[in-house]
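Summary for the steering committee. One of the milestones for this cycle was to obtain a three-dimensional model of the protein with adenosine-5'-triphosphate bound, which we needed before selecting residues for the alanine scan. The sequence and ligand used are listed below.
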Amino acid sequence: MSSPPALELRGLSKTYGDNKLTALSDVTLSIRPGEIFALLGPNGAGKTTLIGSVCGLVKKTSGKVLVFGHDLDEDPVRPRYQIGLVPQEVNFDPFFTVAESLYIQQGYYGQPRDEARVKEVLAALNLSHKADAITRALSGGMKRRLLIAKALVHKPKLVFLDEPTAGVDVELRRDLWNYVRRLAAEGTTIVLTTHYLEEAEELADRVGVINEGKLLLVEDKRTLLRRLGEKNLIVTFTAPVSTPPEAARQAGATLSADGLTLTYPEREGGLPGNDVLRLLYTQGFPVGNVETRSSRLEDILIEILRGKPAASAAAALNALPPATP
Ligand SMILES: Nc1ncnc2c1ncn2[C@@H]1O[C@H](COP(=O)(O)OP(=O)(O)OP(=O)(O)O)[C@@H](O)[C@H]1O
């Protein structure tokens, strides 16, 4: 029998307060053990609410949450021992030392004091030299490192990182990325929310896009980049032209209003970009600069949020792995 998903959401919904604000609407999602899953969406999309519902910080309105196959309605406590959460905001007692706050965390998760583990986590997050510092005296970036250390010290198998690198420096981001990769390689499942698309592009195996509480798309990152991504051939002319070559126009080439830039989206099976260039040269167009630009996750996300590839979003959702019985 195959192992259950690390996390499974079935029709998860959350409505806040009397004004019936729907923060999550019928979210169904299955995350494999060892996967790095990036949840992307604009402010207020429902990402933190989703994480909170799994971690016990938000009371869901309806739906099911299963952690490694265990239904949290049946046992809300034990399955959560497998979870680690790096929240957006600092949440530790400012009067303990760095090491003490990690030992407290181990105790909180029902684990014996494990000095070797504390040392290991501190070293991985470049905090060893601050082990005996009072947490109040840490810099902002060090507080974030400690937040991450706290979430990991009990060796969780499912880790939520809620915008872990918001407002941190390049060095911490790099350290964290390395550590996330190592954890995933060791079998830890990572769910990451981020506004830095570069972060999702760099780390994620799969990407989910959420907006207004609805999961619009779940897709393998590479497929997403390949299927929705396109290479644009950008040709700048040295003098304005009035119209692109007919064959290029029919294949999708467009001209900027000033007649100085031609953009041609190269797609699999379509007219190759080099053929478009050949047409331009042979027909005497005043070609100046030529470059190709690949679309990045950022471009694709903007398209999805604008609702452009709605059909593919629906297809991707239908292609989700079936719920385990
Ligand atoms: N405790 C609460 N009471 C009422 N409304 C809430 C509460 N928490 C969140 N909301 C609302 O629920 C919606 C989703 O919020 P959530 O924090 O989950 O979004 P998010 O995707 O994490 O946003 P961000 O990227 O800004 O952190 C928002 O409209 C938010 O205002």
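Key point for the committee: The chain has two domains: 7-226+301-318, 230-294.
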